[in-house]
Amino acid sequence: MKRVLCLVLTVVMALALFAVPASAAEEKVVLDVINYHVGTDYAADFYAYLFSEFQKTEEGKNVEFNFEEIPTTDAFNQKIKLLISSGDLPDIVLNGGNNITALAAEAGKVADLTPYFDADPEWKATFDEASLEFNTVDGKIYGVPVSKEISYIYYNKTLFAEAGLTAPEVAYETWDDFFAACETLLEHDITPISMDTGDMGWLTNLWYSALIGTEGETGNAFMKSMYPTDYNTPEVEEATETLQKMLAEYTTADAVGGKYDTMATHFFNGEVAMLPNGPWMIPDIRSPEKAPEGFYDEVGVMLMPKAGMEMVPTPGDMVGATEPEKIEAAVAFLKFETTIENQLKGLEMAGLQPVAKEVDIPDTLIESDPLMAQVMELMGKAEWTYGQNQAYWYQNVIDEFSVQLPELAYSNLSPAEFCTKLSEAAQKN
After folding, report:
1. pLDDT for 38-57, tens place per residue?
2. How far apart are CA 386 and CA 210, in angstroms?
3. Which CATH code, of 3.40.190.10, 3.40.50.10490, 3.40.630.30, 3.40.190.290, is assigned to 29-143+315-354?
4. Comparing C-alpha atoms, which of 333, 341, 335 is closest to residue 65?
5. Strands 272-277 and 191-193
6. pTM more than 0.90
7. Bridge-partner residues for 141, per DSSP?
8. Exposure pattern of 3-40 as b/e (b: 16+ CB <10 Å)?
């Protein structure tokens, strides 16, 4: 018996020496992420929170992230487009604001997420049909919507008062009324609006979309259509003529060639009276690193003229992973990112509009952020809602828009010629 016991003990001790702890036996899954939400980006803190908190969950405890940081959306989008055409996408493909879902899906570079939505009906039911449809290609869902996009006008109350202007409660009734206010601002040596042409001309795109989208049923239908190919229509050419005038007369001298960050700084510094953007800008307006102390109280919001508001689903985050365990881990992160709790966290930290069909905004958030409360009230007063080019147009048309804007601004192109350039780019698809 002693010999037997000794033998058993020897075996047990040997097994103990060579046994691998359960936690060590579970291999880490490393997910590559190209992250542009870094530095001074409006959502940098929110995404730092998401990546960190996910690793504390049961699904994320064995996941590690390998980050490549790119500090601007323009550089990020250019890199992703390059990787779609020649290369491998990161395991998690963040939404860069432009619609590359179809491009990535047709290239076979992203995973079909339909089985994951079908396997989790409760998660799928979180999203409205329009948002899922927007991220569907040939009947398959490739993108997970993370927010809805709306935009309107921010204005500087102090500059309006200096010009003797009272901002409308909701919106200027007509574009003529809006431009009359711009003329009044100019008479008081105040630059009326922020515009840009670099980084795909984000601000200029918002003005342009509003000009077209509030131009009757035809213009509104155009700004709700996916991948239009004919831009030489009366509504679009008329909007282009107005846009040319705005670039020439109502904005800063550095708008042509300028990028969003510079134009936003002009607004924060009280050098421009109005800027179009969405609720994600509110955290920047509150930030002492980006805006002067007390600036938050100087800012008001209104809809675009004619009570117009961009309101569209957004391209969702995608999965570029190809290995099954990486796909599972990436989907788990996207599920975590879009819980109701984290959608509200995104609203609070980054001004991201919740994509959930039903979500109750806490009273505490409304009390702590009255500007956000005004925005949410405005949403129900929009008489015209429409899309914008970075969501609905072909990617090469978005690029062409930015390339040709300086030519339009300097009158090297007529409005009709500018529209022809867009049409020619679209028809290449």
Report:
1. 998 889 999 999 999 999 99
2. 8
3. 3.40.190.10
4. 333
5. parallel
6. no
7. 136
8. eeeeeeeeeeeeeeeeeeeeeeeeeebebbbbbbbeee
